[in-house]
C-alpha cells in the first residue's frame, strides 16, 4: 500500500457520497432498541419501490443522543429522526422524495448538538465502522503515512508534547511526557497497550468510540508505536463489549490486508502488529499494572510503583499505556498542529473531553465538549435538565473514583484542576446526574458496594476497608448509626486513601467523602442530628 493507492480508494468511495444515504445507528444502544430490524425493513421497502439501487442504507456508529434511539439520519439533507421503529420505514422512504413524514425529528439546532465540539467523535455516526474503505474516504491512515515518511519519532513526540494532551483515562498525565519516557527507556522490545477496560458504572465512552470508529484508534496506536519504537501492540478490552471486540477484530484484519498494519507499513521499515486481549470482568484491570499482569497470563493484581510501566512494563520491557480516547486524539493533533489543539480548552487542560451523560437527565447520551465548559452548561443546556423538570441535586463525575458535586457548584469548569478542587476527578468520562429525589447516602453506599466487589484483595486497606465502609454506610442507611460513626467513616476513608496499594482503594472513599462534605445533613437525618459524636 502506498499513498496513491490510499487516495484511489478514497476517491472511489467518495462517489458514494453523491447518492442519497440513510444512516442507521448500529451502536450497541440502538441495536438493543431494534435498529438492525429497522435497517432491514428500510431495505425491503426500498426494494419494493425500486429505489434500492439509488439509496444506500448504511449502518453507522453512535450518533450521540442515545436516550432517543433508535436514531436515523438522511443524507445529504441532514434530517435526523428519533425513536424510529420498523413501522416507520414507509414514511422515511417517502421522505426521501419530500413526501409527508410523521416520524419525530431531532432538532439539530438544539444545544445538545450545537454546544459540542467533535474531534474524537468527528466520524461517529457518519461512516460504516465495519468498512475500512469508509475510514479511508474521510482521510483515514493519511496521517500515519505522513508520520512514517515525513517525521522522525522525536518530531512526533514533540508535537504531542506541545499540544498539551493529557491522558484521558482519568489521571491526566501528560501524554507527550509518557511517550518520551518510553522512547528513551532501554529495552530489547517495547510495547504499546490501549486500555479499553472501561468499567465505571454509567460509562460508555470508550465502548462507543471502538464500536463507531475503530480504525481511528488503530491509527493512533500505530503512530504512537512509531514514536516510541514499538513493534507490538495490544488492545485490552473488557469482555462485556462483544460488539466493540467484533469490530476491532474486523478492523485489524482489514488493516493488515491493506498493509496498514503488520510488516513494512507503507513500504517503509516500520513494522507494527496489534492483537486483542479480552478481559474477564475485573474492574481492577483498568489499573495499568494489573492490566499488564492479565495480558501476561497472571492474576490481574496491581503491583507497587516504581518502576513504572514506561520503564518496566509488559514482560519487563518499556511499555506505553494510553486509553482509547487518548489514542483517538492523535491523528487530529498531527493533522491540525499542536497549537490548534492547545488553543482549545483551558490553560492546563487542553482539547475536548468525551462524557457519557446518564442518570436523571433528559438527553442521555454521548457528548464531546471543550475543556473548561461548566457543569451547568452540560447539565442544563446540553443535557436538558431532568426529565420531569425537578431540580438537579448533584452530578457524580469519575465513576467509583469520583465525587458528587452539588448543584451549588455547577458553575465549576470541567477541567482536571477544577474538579479536583471540589473533591471529584475527571475520570475517564462518566457523568451521572441526580435529582432531588436521590438519597446521597444510597449513592455512596452503591459505589462502595461496587468497590467492595471489585477489590482484588491484595492489600488490606482496600480489601477490608471497602467492606467495613459498606457495612457502616448500611448501618447509617438503616438508621442504626450514631454520630460517632460518621467520624469513624471519615477516619477510615483517610486511612484507605493514604495506605491502599492502587488507585481503586485510594479513590474508593471519594464518593463517601464528597457526600459527607456536601450532603452531611442527609447522613445526620438518618442518625438524628443530636447523635453522640463522642463515643
Automatic annotation (TrEMBL):
**Source domain of life:** Bacteria
| One Pfam family hit | Complex1_51K
Question: Residues in domain NADH-ubiquinone oxidoreductase 51kDa subunit iron-sulphur binding?
Answer: 441-486
GO terms for MF? 4 iron, 4 sulfur cluster binding; FMN binding; metal ion binding; NADH dehydrogenase (ubiquinone) activity; oxidoreductase activity
Annotated EC: 1.6.99.5
Keyword vocabulary terms for this entry: 4Fe-4S, Iron, Iron-sulfur, Metal-binding, Oxidoreductase
What InterPro entries does the record tag this protein with?
A: NADH-UbQ_OxRdtase_51kDa_CS, Nuo51_FMN-bd, Nuo51_FMN-bd_sf, Nuop51_4Fe4S-bd, Nuop51_4Fe4S-bd_sf, Soluble_ligand-bd, Thioredoxin-like_sf
Family note: Belongs to the complex I 51 kDa subunit family.
The name this protein carries in UniProt is NADH dehydrogenase (Quinone)
Record organism? Chloroflexus aggregans (strain MD-66 / DSM 9485)
Q: Tell me the classification of the organism that encodes this protein.
A: Bacteria, Bacillati, Chloroflexota, Chloroflexia, Chloroflexales
